[in-house]
Amino acid sequence: MTLKELTKIIEYYGTQSDCWPEVDRGAALNLIATDSDAKQMRSQYMQLEALLDQHQVPEFPNLESRILNQNLPARRKALLDKLLDWLLPATSAKLLWRPVLVACMPLLFGVVVGNFFNFGVNIEYIETAEYWEDELYLLSLNDYPESQF
Amino acid sequence: MTDEELMLAIGNRDESAFHIVVRTHQNSLSHYVFRILGNQKDTEDITQETFLRLWKNAEKWQPAKSKLTTWLHRIAHNLCIDHVRKKSNAETEELDDSSATGSELNTALEQSNDLKRLSIAMGSLHENQKNALVLCHYQGFSNKEAAKIMGISVKAVESSMARAKRSLRKLLISSEAHNNKSNKAQL
User: Fold this and answer.
1) ipTM of the shown complex
2) B22 — contact with chain A (CB < 8 Å)?
3) Whose CA is closest to B130, among B148, B114, B108, B146?
4) Which of A61-65, A114-118, B97-101, B107-111 is the most confident on average?
5) Cα separation of B131 and B125, whole Å?
6) Are the Cβ atoms of B172 and A66 closer than 8 angstroms?
């Protein structure tokens, strides 16, 4: 390992060896033990970290109460979310009738609509057609020669 | 209660769950925001706004993607970035006189002690450098988590942090040299 590589490791992961990548740790520690420049460089970064740790943040004594006492807005849910919440409630299995009801809706709708609209299907025509089929069937049973028609 | 349970409860407008989350994360978030903005009033505003966003968007948190603390820091990070940019736009005229600002910084650095120097130098770091340093050194996030919070690659975080540390180390070395010089002069 070179000094440049060790510098990168320290800059990326800090001076504590247990934070370094395992694959490089042994070689890095070995370099520090044998190279005075590496040792000095690490010591400078250790000084810097110690100085950074001294940099304190002031207390915010009223911040917690300010956040907790603020008026929290009522969160508006989208219509689709509301519908899905009603349809698939996460709380109780007793409300299982809701998805069942929704699943039956197309069937009920079909029955109701089917009662009121014929969608172009002429029932009288069907009856007439059935009538003529019967007539032809009866005629076919008679044993008249063709010349009589 | 786990974070998932707390967030589910907040999604169902449970204020007591919200209070627990605020008490758990308020210190860490306010410290982060203060280290980025360096201003007590702005820190309080941004921290409050972060928790308000948590209340409004609790259901958007995806536990599989990030820890709650990472998600909260990301919200705070974005708010800080917006705040800094708005502020810098408003102060464009003052920033035009950048040579004066630079010389003021140098004078301040020469006249102050190590800790004050460090504080001034940190204030002069680039936005990404400062964020990477604060998230990894002070907030204890890994480089990967810091990258998620900042919305950049891990390589970019490492490079930003290396640059920040390098410039602060230079400052420390020059400070030592300055101290040695003044000690010799006194002798």
Assistant:
1) 0.77
2) yes
3) B146
4) A61-65
5) 9
6) no
